[in-house]
Each structure stands twice: as C-alpha cells, then as structure tokens.
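Quick one: structure tokens for this chain, please?
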Amino acid sequence: MADVKIRMRPSGPFVIEGAVTLTDSEGNKFPLSSDKPSIALCRCGASEKRPFCDGAHNRCDFTSDERAPVE
C-alpha cells in the first residue's frame, strides 16, 4: 500500500500527499496530475474549484485549526 499523508493547514485546506484517487458521489474520477506530489482540498466551502482549494479561505474569514488529542 502506498503511503498517503493528510494534513490540515490552519484555517486552510486539507493537503493530501501521495498517490490517491478522488471520486465524486457517482464514482467519477477527478483528473489529478501524476507529476504533482500533493493536492489541496477545500474546507471552507468558498472555493470556485471545489473540491479543490483555490485560496478562497483567505478571503472569506474562514477559521479552523482543530487539534488531535494529546495522549
């Protein structure tokens, strides 16, 4: 299995690093460039390129920085 890492950027997108397939609710694949090491998925809902991030979080006052529990 390929290593995939998903990280959250403070008040920004989910960044997915590694080889993934992204499909819509009907199972259709989004075209992803194989030469890009990562993709950024919108969390704010304001992107005009959803599900991908276009930086709209910087213009819509989106704030979010959830933290994993510390054990």
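Residues 37-64 form one domain.
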